[in-house]
Amino acid sequence: MSLPAPEEFLRIARGWADLGWVRALDVALAEQLHTLAPAPCSSCLLASVLVSHQAGQGHLLLNLTDTQRRPRAVIAVDPDTDRPDWPTPEALIDALVEPWASQLTAWAAVTDGAGSTPLVLIDDALYLRRYYRHETAVAEAVAHRLAEAPRLSADAVRPIADRLFPPADHPAEAAANATQKMACALAARSQFAVITGGPGTGKTNTVIRLLGLLQASALDAGHPTLRIRLAAPTGKAAARLDEAIGGQIDQLRTLDLPGGEALHQAIPREVTTLHRLLGARPGTRHFRHHAGHPLPLDMVVVDEASMVDIEMMTALLDALPAHARLVLLGDRDQLASVEAGAVLGRLCAQAEGGHYQAETAQWLQAATGEAVDSSLRDDTGRPLDQAIAMLRHSFRFDAGGGIGQLARAINTGDAQTALNILKAQDHDDLDYRGLHGADDPTVARLITSRADYPMRPAADAERAEWDAWATAILETAGQFQMLTPLRRGPFGADALNQQIEQALARTGQLGSAGPPGRWYAGRPVMVTGNDYGLKLMNGDIGITLRVPAPFGDPEQGEDLRVAFRSEGRVRWVLPSRLQHVETVYAMTVHKSQGSEFAHTALIVPDTAPPVLTRELIYTAVTRARERFTLLCASDRVLTQAIQRQVTRQSQLFS
Ligand SMILES: Nc1ncnc2c1ncn2[C@@H]1O[C@H](COP(=O)(O)OP(=O)(O)OP(=O)(O)O)[C@@H](O)[C@H]1O
């Protein structure tokens, strides 16, 4: 077949949008571009629909060669959809005869980055200009920081590093300590560093020691201490880091570091969100801090960096003063942000192999007394590799534990071993249950049989008692979380939440199920957008409770309030003030990122949606601290998911 004329193509593309194959937004872009700069042929408009579609899938670019080679990897058409009598995207991609890139070069909407055209073509990578700009800005800012000479001499680092990481007795711990010590020194050496590792590998422990090292050496040299802020992409992740660091900072006191009390005063204990740090302006994409008004800081540490998308990373690098250090912490194997650009994944793509040059290895040995393993040496390693440390020993999941073994099998794509581990029933921390359809009562039973909630205070109790009660309830509710890959459909979070509400109503655990979104005592909700007025952040979880209003005065009657814990205290919010919340007996795995629960249960549906990937299953499993349950409707779907790894299209750090 031959390609249709541009106008006819746009009509076909609108049909694709009606069928849900692409977004209306993707077609609107092509229409707008064609109005501004008429396309010489429809292959140009096809490319513009696809590059926008790719952005919606989290990719920064459309690779033209790969798209022609494997159209289905870019746009998979649902085989069950009634096909119209017009061509599919795949058929049109197959019909391209002329070299696609040279057709695009002839279009006024495309340049190689010069000017301000909406599309940019670099070799055979087509970008929306916005993402091209972000990718270039992030790559340049990181390269600039990496090019700076080492900040600290190995001789200055050594005595402090030795105190920070005293020798451990147990061989496994001694090895983990040595890796953390090297990661800490590596991060101290340059202005940009990444510390990656799975759950409980000591990223936080290492970074707190890094802060101790930097502040102690500043004090030792008679310099002012660094102005440091700790941040995370979501409120929930910030709160979790906040809880984790207190004890680890206190441990520093026992290590006899230079600087004494002044050192402890110089270690920040508060964690903020990136939005707050940069000064988000409600309703705009702009921040108060940027290159023209940089952050008044010498160092920023970002935890859960896998959730940081390219746009946020650009904004952060833009707002950092040129001299400031940036340290990113995160698990590179976790799901990337839903937004475009898997920045941490790209940064750490080679982390497994180390790739440390001789100079780095010598510096590390001098700074820590530890030798870099020969398997991690590579004299052709890139400057970026010299600033990336990977922690490999988990203190949370012992080597013999089920969750740790399962996470490892998933990460290596070994679906058969993962299934064997799950089904062997010989790990106390794992549980596998078959699901017979989405309305299998097993799902609701996990919620209705939850631990009992603490006793309600007396009606005339003071506010402090209600706060303590709400805290205990939030803790109990936070012990278990049901996770699903999907939002919609029978196995999606929306349907599961309704099903669970109905089951709770049947067992008398709530008044009546009512329509979705109705407020009732016991309803757990998650905030889905930052609300600066209420001091609630995206990802914060609250629980609806019936309490005297006002507290301490039962005569006035009772009312529903949603209790949240934020910034170390309970915040009671009127339900009507919560504009962006959803019920979270079940939540999507994407929403669970940055959170952790004693027990999680993951639903694997009976068909494989594109979102069900290795990263998603790994993220769900590693949300569990003590116990993981798999509710599996199809072993085949689980196997396919573990074998499917997403590669976000991008040229960042390539
Ligand atoms: N070198 C070490 N020796 C002994 N215990 C350690 C060491 N490093 C970390 N731990 C302990 O292991 C646990 C996990 O450490 P940490 O919180 O630093 O890991 P993490 O990688 O930041 O975890 P997460 O994935 O939850 O962010 C903590 O209880 C910590 O005290």
Summarize the structure.
By secondary structure, the protein is α/β, with parallel strands linked by helices. 40% of the residues lie in helices and 15% in strands.
Assign the CATH superfamily of the largest domain.
P-loop containing nucleotide triphosphate hydrolases
Query: Structural class from helices and strands?
Result: alpha/beta
Share of residues in helices: 40-55%
Tell me the domain tally: 3
Number of strands: 20
CATH uppermost class of the largest domain:
Alpha Beta
Main beta-sheet strand count, sense and barrel state = 6 strands, parallel
The second-level CATH architecture of the largest domain is 3-Layer(aba) Sandwich
Contiguous helical run count: 25
Give the distance, in angstroms, between the N- and C-terminal Cα atoms: 37 Å
Strand fraction = 15-25%
Q: Outline, from the CA principal axes? A: globular
Lateral arrangement of strands in the main beta sheet = 7-6-8-9-5-10
Q: What's the mean pLDDT score?
A: 88
Poorly predicted segments: none
Oligomer class: single chain
The unique ligands bound to this protein are: adenosine-5'-triphosphate
| CATH topology-level name of the largest domain | Rossmann fold
Family: Belongs to the RecD family.
Catalytic activity: ATP + H2O = ADP + phosphate + H(+)
Protein name: RecBCD enzyme subunit RecD
EC number: 5.6.2.3
Walk me through what this model shows:
This protein folds into three domains: about 5-125, RecBCD complex, subunit RecD, N-terminal domain (Arc Repressor Mutant, subunit A, Orthogonal Bundle), CATH 1.10.10; about 155-390, P-loop containing nucleotide triphosphate hydrolases (Rossmann fold), CATH 3.40.50.300; about 400-525 and about 575-645, P-loop containing nucleotide triphosphate hydrolases (Rossmann fold). The chain is built from 25 helices and 20 strands. It is of the alpha/beta class and about 650 residues long. It is about 40% helix and about 15% strand. The strands form four sheets. It has a six-stranded parallel β-sheet. The two termini are about 35 Å apart. The chain is globular, with a radius of gyration of 26 Å. The longest helix is centred in the first third of the chain and has 19 residues, at about 130-145. Helix 2 (about 25-35) packs across helix 3 (about 40-55).
